[in-house]
Amino acid sequence: MGLLLAAFPPELGPLAEAPPHGWETACTGVGALTAAATTARLLAERRPEAVVFLGTCGRYDERLGLFECLWATEAIATSLEEVRGGAYRPAPERTRWTATLEGPLPGRTVAVPPAITRTLEGARALAAIAPVEHLELTGVFAACEAAGVPFGAALVVVNDVGPEAQAQWKANHAEGSLRLIAALRGTGFLERP
């Protein structure tokens, strides 16, 4: 059995009530720390063969279009202060996780800051790390790697990072989630024997 995760039920769309054959669904909550703890608990309870996280993300610039779907090949824990040089992490702290499942969508690196970036200046700075921002992936990826469970993530771009992000996200997240699910279904990725 595979496990489809999302931060909250709307990002699972119709899969929340009717998961594809061979999959179960669950929600992690919002933010990397909450997602890590919840994912670790779910892995211990359900013992899935693989985990795929589904979610929405914001773009830092126009390298990706709105409603474009992607496979998160790498999740990087970072912050605006780190990029600006105002903060650093101790050398042994892990900041990068690479997906262990190959996905059916174009691969992209994903930045995972501790909070949503609200400024255009911040978006420009973080664009040097990745094309998109998401809040849960490092937690999900870290928990899966620690448990030895193969993992990956499919995301859809629903907003521009910056001052209008929240309004755009509210207007687009439901449609974006439906488009992401349709894209995955169209590839046959969600079909399990």
Automatic annotation (TrEMBL):
InterPro entries: Nucleoside_phosphorylase_d (IPR000845), Nucleoside_phosphorylase_sf (IPR035994). Residues 26-174 form the Nucleoside phosphorylase domain. Transmembrane segments: none annotated. It comes from the Bacteria. SUPFAM superfamilies: Purine and uridine phosphorylases. This is Nucleoside phosphorylase domain-containing protein. It comes from Geothrix rubra.
